[in-house]
Every structure is written in C-alpha cells, then in structure tokens.
Design goal:
Layout: H1 3-23, H2 29-36, H3 40-64, H4 70-88, H5 94-121, H6 128-157, H7 159-180, H8 193-200, H9 203-224, H10 226-233, H11 238-266, H12 268-291, H13 297-326, H14 330-359, H15 363-392
Helix pairs in contact: 1-5, 1-6, 1-7, 2-3, 3-5, 3-14, 4-5, 4-7, 5-6, 5-14, 6-7, 6-11, 6-13, 9-13, 9-14, 9-15, 11-12, 11-13, 12-13, 12-15, 13-14
Length: 393
C-alpha cells in the first residue's frame, strides 16, 4: 500500500470513529439512564445535543480554523475527542456527561468536514469522487458496524466501556493520521473572511446546499419511519424489519462507492440526476406497494434495498460538486453541507411524524418523493446559475 492510500484509509477510519461516537449512545441508553438516574428520554438528549452542536459549530470552525495546518488541526481535535470520551467513561454526573458530549461534538465538527475537503483537495482530478467515497464509507460503516459493536461492548461490559472503547479508537486513529498524513508545503492559501463569504454566497453553492438539505429531509423522513411503513404495508415482523435495515445499510456502502465512480466518470450533475431520479422511482413504488397492501415482502425488501443504495449514492457527487465550485473554501462549503445534512435529518423526522399522524403511513413515500423532486429542481437552478456565471466571465 503506497503513502496516498495509507492516509486516505486513515481518514476513512477517522470518519468511522467520529460518526460512531455520535450514534452509539442510542444502543446503550437504557443502561446509561439507569446508572445515572435519569429517564431514557433525558438520556436521549445526549444524541440531540451532539448533533445540534455539530450542525451549528461546523461552519464556524471551518472559517475560524481555515488557516490551521491540517495535521495540527486533526491532531488537536482528536486529542480533545479522546479526552472527552475518556472522561465520559468515568463521570458519575449526567450534567457533566452532557458537557463532555458537547466537547466531543466540537471536536467532530472541526474535523469531519475538513477530512472530506482534504481527501478531495489531494485527490487526482479524475478520482475526486472516489476519494470522497472512500472517506464516506466510514459514515455508512459506523452505522453498519460501529454502532452494533459499540452496543455489544456496552451490553457486555457496561456503558462506560463503550466510551472507553471510543477513546481508544480515537487514539489509534490519531496515531494513524499523524503518521500517514502528508505534510503541508507552505501556508494554506485561504482567502480573507470577506472573500470566503463572497464565494460561499454564490447562487450555485447556496442552491446546492439547500438541495442537499431538502434531499436529506425526504430521505430521513422515510428512514425514520420505515418500521411503521413495513408494519402497515406488509406482514413483516421484527426480524424482517431488522433484515430490511441491514440490507439498506449494506446497499448504502455499495451505493457510496458506485456513486463515487459515477461522479468521476459522468460528472456530479448526471450522477445526481440518476441517483435522485432513482429515489423518486423507489418512493413511488413503495407508495404503490402500500396501496396494494399486504405487499409481498420480497418485493418491498428489493425496493427498499435499491432506495438505501441510491440514498447514499448521491453523497460523493454532492460533495465533489461543492468542492469544485468553492475552490479555496471547499472546506467551509463542506462544513455548511454537514450542517445542512444534520438539519435535514431533524426536519425529516419532524415532518415525517406530522405526515404519519395526520395522513397515515401512505403519505410518507409520496412526501419523500416530493422532497426529492424539489432537490432536483434546486440543482437544476444551481446548474443554470453556474452556467450564467461562467458566461459573464
């Protein structure tokens, strides 16, 4: 394995650990709540505060730390991450644990967008999509493997062992990143703040960021309430529902890699047109299957698996597009994209709950399809604005 592959996979490992840390608490909530004397609902706010902190802090950190050498940034952020998790493993106070989760989230917020930007910036021009896809595999891997392993550790050795494991994993990633990451040649040529804001305020970038948020809203709306859909549309039990989520997760891993290849071969716009179009088609299919309920479970599994793959297929294209448009402030653009993703997750869960309560399960696929179509329209406007900008130059 040559040097470039070494640092790329070190960044994959960093994404895996940082995203696992966000999600893993969901698997140890009962034990944590019981030990610290709080309700499970209160303990669940540890997940909320982490996600909200990342969403709010990522753009600010990207601008404030834009001139920091990436090796130094990653090293300091991962040290803070390790310390926060090590302290979380020993604290007897829920209030202190909440503060430590905010500290860990700040470390993640300053690191995760920079990881993707670093991979894109140091990739060969013809492999930007694939380099982003490799790092993005850490995100899907955290859901498919990181959270289950962390949950198992917590159930076998206590919830504190899960935080200990995260601290150890963070230390190993810190070592890998420090050893393999290429050294920076000279200072980073980052524009002054006014110029950064001017670039980030361009219509093609703003519309692209909004499109990602809208797309995530629709996707997470369906994912959040997939279990109620399966229960209403099929005769699936708990095991069949678990299988559906598992197949969707595996498809997501494959989808990210294929989406990266497609981005390099077709370009971001064509890749997104195909991916979002496929999401619309699968949502319409899920609505039709619900209308014809009880639907054959194998057919629903097949459609849900395709949807899971396509939902993640779009990620490399969205990030590669922003990287190319934002140029010297691609890290800041990707940080805003991270915020938009978390915002979309929150909005999707909220609106999905309203749709479910007001109109029933059948409204979910059509509503999600509507958001996907909205994302396509926004991307079309973004492309039109980008073309107009080039013609004016």
């Amino acid at each position: 394995m040559n040097r470039i592959h070494a640092w790329l996979f070190a960044l994959l490992a960093a994404a895996f650990v940082l995203y696992t840390d966000d999600y893993v608490i969901a698997g140890i909530l009962p034990e944590l709540a019981n030990d610290l004397g709080v309700t499970e609902g209160e303990a669940g706010q540890l997940v909320t505060v982490f996600s909200v902190t990342v969403a709010l802090a990522a753009p600010v950190a990207a601008v404030a730390l834009a001139r920091a050498p990436r090796r130094h940034l990653f090293a300091v952020a991962l040290l803070v991450f390790v310390a926060a998790n090590a302290a979380a493993a020993s604290t007897p106070s829920f209030a202190v644990l909440m503060v430590l989760r905010i500290v860990a989230a700040f470390a993640a917020a300053s690191t995760t967008p920079a990881i993707f930007a670093f991979a894109a910036r140091h990739a060969p021009a013809e492999k930007v999509g694939r380099y982003i896809a490799v790092v993005a595999l850490g995100v899907t891997g955290s859901i498919a493997a990181g959270v289950p392993v962390g949950t198992w550790v917590g159930s076998a050795f206590g919830w504190r062992a899960t935080f200990t494991a995260m601290a150890v994993a963070g230390a190993l990633v810190l070592l890998a990143v420090f050893v393999t990451l290429p050294r920076q040649n000279g200072p980073d040529e980052t524009p002054v703040l006014r110029e950064q804001l001017r670039i980030l305020g361009r219509r093609p970038i703003l519309l692209g960021l909004l499109a990602n948020c809208v797309l995530m809203t629709g996707s997470m709306m369906m994912l959040t309430y997939l279990a109620p859909y399966l229960a209403a549309a099929t005769t699936a039990g708990v095991e069949e529902r678990a299988l559906t989520f598992s197949l969707s997760g595996i498809a997501g891993i494959v989808g990210i890699w294929l989406g990266g290849i497609a981005t390099d071969k077709w370009g971001a716009d064509r890749t997104l047109l195909f991916g979002i179009g496929a999401i619309v088609a699968t949502m319409i299919a899920l609505w039709a299957l619900w209308a014809a309920r009880p639907a054959p479970l194998p057919v629903v599994l097949a459609v849900a698996t395709v949807w899971g793959g396509m939902a993640f297929w779009n990620s490399p294209a969205i990030q590669a597009r922003l990287h190319l448009l934002a140029g010297p402030v691609s890290g800041q653009a990707l940080a805003l994209n991270t915020s938009g993703t978390y915002l979309g997750v929150s909005i999707g869960a909220a609106l999905g709950g309203l749709a479910l309560s007001g109109h029933g399960v059948g409204a979910l696929p059509l509503t999600a399809a509507g958001f996907a179509l909205g994302a396509l329209v926004l991307l079309a406007f973004a492309r039109q604005a980008d073309t107009a900008t080039h013609q004016m130059r």
